[in-house]
Specification:
heterodimer, A: 22-stranded antiparallel β-barrel, B: 6-stranded antiparallel beta sheet, 4-stranded antiparallel beta sheet, globular
């Protein structure tokens, strides 16, 4: 490791300081970029009423981010989770509650509510937009904590571009990007190959914290302009992952080792027909077809095969019409239908697809009474086949006090529909104690049948309370004050609060005669997340810029808090004797850090030389309820707080060749148990070749 | 079996603390003293079966008399000499299917010191093997939780085992720890430590010899 770092130090400057002229605009300031996710229509960032973060292609490239995870983990207010792939936690809410879109269309294929963000390669994207706060009024289910929209653009003209990256653990990433453009036809094609050997914390162990993986991805986009007012857009996306698995499950001292392969494929076809009738009226018809298939084939050492399949289909038709009523009033009206289905070996039959249909309509009105004020009101209705319907209202405003100060306020309600797993899961874990989990659509029937066969030992009271699930709801309020004293500095200060109700939680509803537990899902939980976010950016010189961010977060389960206040939750004193838990000892929801902070330095000059160093801090977070009192408190297990320090330096030459070197996790912080996605110190080097920009 | 029991007796240390009487009191009920029992072995793990990978032990209960605060030899297992029997995380009372005594129990959620009298409507359960036990067996159901991830057993805070002894007297028990030395091992402890150091009970109890339900 040391030797490699030495090489890096010796050779990097040689590549970097050869003098070639190359013109690049300076980085960082979001300037007055255009945002589409906040209102489902193009708006200048300075005119958006809700909190939005834009990550542009350049900042993705300059930190050397390959997968969506790499870039999101460095955003203020977000943190990554590590069970069932890398998910994103937004303002303290779990990955289930953030919708991930590609060009406005949702990605599907979640395991236990988590969409693995490593599936998404970043090589061809134009920008990523993150909207914080409930956005179901525009996007429906899952947009409860916020929205992450990945935007690619067929009309972005980039010359033929290829890149090859090699890094620690034999990690290879190769990309090819091409665009073609004529007056009326635009094409963008992107191909990506990624593989890694994974890594193990114990040197001689076969079991890998990150498993060996191979991914191929391609993304093709076409745009055809029939006339200036009418165009058609088609986007195709395909990814395939092959993961080698060596798993060991330990239960009661018995360890079952198994090995095998996991194959995940994912494709989307998105097409849209867009027509502008006049400057005041345009409409867009969109169709979206997507399928995610995950197949896990495992072979235990004893020879017993184990197959696990998940296959999710999601098809959607939608229309959206934008109408400029007058100079002060614009409206969006839309609606659509979703046909969705899931097959899984964890349901009663892996051959029968469970289906659901959903129809929805939404409308949003934007009123600009004067140059200083923008008011937006919107509402969406989702009607559903398998669970209760949902109304999602939202109101927001922007008040420009003067050129330097802006206030944004938004209040909205978001929801998350019960997912297929919560409705149809029919799973008995033979590897760990033979417990069962049954989705609510069938729980009473299945458990009733087991009961008539004499297999049920006990049924709890909540078994009789099982009924069709309601969506989970959140009400979110975001108040943001932005201050731009001059063109070089930017400050933002935000207060947020989300109140969540109807949370769907797994609960034991009974037990087999053998004592093995039986679980199902109930709408029981109430929780909150609240906090403060602070961001500052400053352009020190033409080349140097600095940015800092901090988040303070408090979370809690409201029912648990009530129990603690009632004095019915216990812990132990220093002598091991029981005593009542104090509210001050309660730490809230697990996997949430109270403090998160980041500090980044950026350098970028006119000769194509760039470099950055980023420090990301996260304070301790509760991981395990070790004292068994069902609430997370000071007496439980915590993951230690840590700092991850990343560095990247690169140079782009005018002849189209570019180099980049990086070192991630320079301090070599490792916590295999709690941070499996953070390997020790790793290095990478990238070579880019593109057709010269000077044509 | 005797060879196993001997060191167990040596390991048993008893300390008494907390006298709750004052000289002014003239009540009939004798003041009850809380007694702490440390490192009571309960069918400790002897090794791992190489074929099944499961830990094995002698499969013998440790019998304990609350009245006399001592381990009772296994030869007296069919008598009313003992009140509680421990093997792994299982605790038996001397009654029902487990013994010839009048023993029974229920689990009270709350603090040890707050169990001052056993109300008359309290229902004592008796052992009915294998379906149910007076001291409910299983993670999260009785006095402990087992964490599959860390393979550690933690006694639940705020649980009091209210016991009817073999002779029909009453006692209250709080399990404090399940590991040798009275301290739960860290998550990072080796698997072999987690096996060899478990099944050593530390608990405190108060026994009311006069037969009343007041402590």
């Amino acid at each position: 490791m040391k030797l490699r770092f030495l090489y890096f130090l010796v050779f990097a400057p040689i590549c970097l300081f050869s003098q070639v002229r190359f013109v690049k605009d300076t980085i960082q300031s979001q300037g007055d970029s255009v945002v589409v996710t906040a209102t489902r229509s193009e708006r200048k960032l300075s005119n958006v009423t809700v909190p939005v973060t834009i990550i542009n292609a350049k900042s993705i490239q300059q930190i050397g981010a390959l997968r969506l995870t790499d870039i999101l983990k460095e955003q203020p207010g977000l943190s990554m989770t590590s069970g069932f792939g890398a998910g994103v936690q937004l303002q303290g809410l779990n990955p289930d509650y953030t919708i991930i879109l590609i060009n406005g269309e949702p990605l599907v294929g979640r395991t236990a509510g988590v969409l693995d963000l490593n599936r998404i390669a970043l090589g061809n994207i134009k920008k990523i937009e993150i909207v914080k706060g409930p956005s179901s009024s525009l996007y429906g289910s899952e947009a409860m904590a916020g929205v992450i929209n990945i935007i690619t653009d067929a009309t972005t003209k980039t010359p033929l571009q290829s890149s090859l990256r090699y890094g620690t653990y034999n990690t290879i990433d190769a990309g090819l990007n091409n665009t073609l453009a004529s007056k009326s036809i635009f094409y963008q094609g992107y191909y990506n190959y990624y593989s890694t050997d994974g890594y193990s914390i114990r040197p001689s162990s076969a079991s890998r914290v990150t498993t060996p993986i191979k991914r191929v991805a391609t993304n093709q986009q076409f745009k055809y302009n029939f006339t200036d007012n009418t165009n058609v857009l088609v986007g195709l996306r395909f990814t395939n992952e092959q993961i080698k698995n060596e798993l060991s499950v330990t239960n009661g001292g018995l360890t079952i080792n198994s090995n095998g392969e996991e194959k995940n494929t994912d494709y989307n076809i998105a097409s849209s027909l867009n027509h502008r009738f006049s400057n005041a009226l345009k409409t867009s018809f969109r169709s979206y077809i997507t399928q995610y298939n995950a197949t896990q084939n495992l072979l235990t050492i004893s020879g017993a095969p184990y197959t696990d399949i998940l296959d999710h289909v999601f098809n959607r038709l939608e229309n959206q019409t934008d109408w400029v009523v007058n100079k002060k009033l614009t409206a969006i009206v839309g609606g659509g239908a979703v046909m969705e289905g899931v097959k899984s070996s964890r349901y009663d039959s892996e051959k029968i697809r469970k289906t659901n249909t959903n129809q929805y309509a939404f409308s949003q009105w934007e009123w600009t009474p004067n140059a200083k004020l923008i008011l937006i009101g919107g509402i969406r209705f989702d009607q559903n086949q398998t669970y209760a319907s949902a109304w999602s209202p939202k109101a927001s405003m922007l008040y420009k006090i003067n050129k330097q100060h802006r206030i944004r306020l938004s209040v909205g309600q978001g929801f998350k529909a019960p997912d297929f797993r919560q409705l149809y899961l029919n799973f008995t874990n033979a590897a760990a104690g033979s417990y069962s989990v049954f989705g609510t659509a069938q729980a009473q029937k299945v458990i009733g049948q087991l009961n008539s066969l004499g297999q049920i030992g006990t049924l709890y009271n909540n078994f009789y309370q099982l009924k069709s699930l309601q969506p989970e709801y959140a009400t979110g309020t975001h108040l943001t004050w932005e201050f731009e004293p001059n063109a070089k500095s930017f400050f933002s200060f935000q207060l947020f609060r989300n109140d969540i109700r109807n949370l769907i939680e797994v609960q034991q509803v009974g037990a087999y005669i053998t004592g093995a537990q039986i679980y199902s899902y109930l709408n029981i939980g109430r929780a909150f997340t609240t906090g403060i976010e602070f961001e500052a950016k400053h352009q020190l010189t033409k080349q140097f810029s600095i940015s800092a961010a901090y988040q303070y977060l408090e979370t809690g389960d409201k029912d648990q808090l009530a129990q603690i206040k009632n004095g019915t939750v216990y812990t132990r004193d220093a002598n091991g004797l029981s005593r009542k838990l104090n509210v001050s000892e309660y730490v809230g929801l697990p996997n949430n850090s109270t403090h998160k902070a980041q500090l980044k330095f950026n350098y970028s000059n006119q000769n194509g030389l760039f470099g950055n160093i980023r420090a990301l801090y996260r304070s301790k977070w509760a991981v395990n309820n070790t004292n068994g009192n069902e609430v997370f408190d000071d007496g439980d297990s915590f993951a230690k707080g840590y700092i991850a320090l990343h560095l990247s330096i690169g140079k782009d030459y005018v002849n189209g060749i570019g180099f980049q070197f990086g070192c991630d996790n320079m301090l070599n912080y490792i916590d295999a148990l709690n941070l499996p996605n953070l390997p020790g110190r790793t290095f990478f080097a990238t070579l880019k070749i593109q057709k010269s920009k000077k044509i | 079996m005797r060879q196993i029991l001997k060191p167990f007796l040596l390991l048993l240390t008893v300390s008494s603390i907390l006298f709750s009487c004052t000289k002014d009191e003239t009540t009939v009920a004798l003041p009850v003293t809380a007694i702490t029992v440390s490192n009571l072995p309960a069918d400790t793990v002897l090794g791992i079966n190489k074929i099944t990978g499961m830990p094995f032990s002698a499969g013998k209960y440790t019998f304990f008399s609350l009245e006399r605060n001592t381990i009772v030899p296994n030869t007296d297992s069919a008598s009313t000499q003992w009140d509680l029997a421990f093997a792994g995380s299982k605790i038996l009372t001397n009654g029902g299917t487990s013994g010839t005594g009048l023993g029974g129990a229920f689990i009270y959620t709350g603090l040890f010191d707050n169990v001052k009298t056993i109300s008359n409507d309290s229902v004592f359960k008796t052992d009915n093997a294998p379906a149910s036990f007076a001291v409910t067996f299983g993670s999260g159901k009785g006095w402990y939780v087992y964490d599959q991830l860390t393979s550690l057993i933690t006694p639940l805070a705020g649980r009091v085992l209210v016991i009817r002894t073999a002779s029909g007297k009453y006692a209250k028990v709080e399990i404090i720890n399940y590991y040798k030395g009275g301290v739960t091992l860290p998550i990072t402890a080796s698997d072999s430590d987690k096996l060899s150091k478990q099944r050593y009970y530390t608990f405190r109890y108060a026994y009311q010899p006069n037969g009343s339900k007041t402590f």
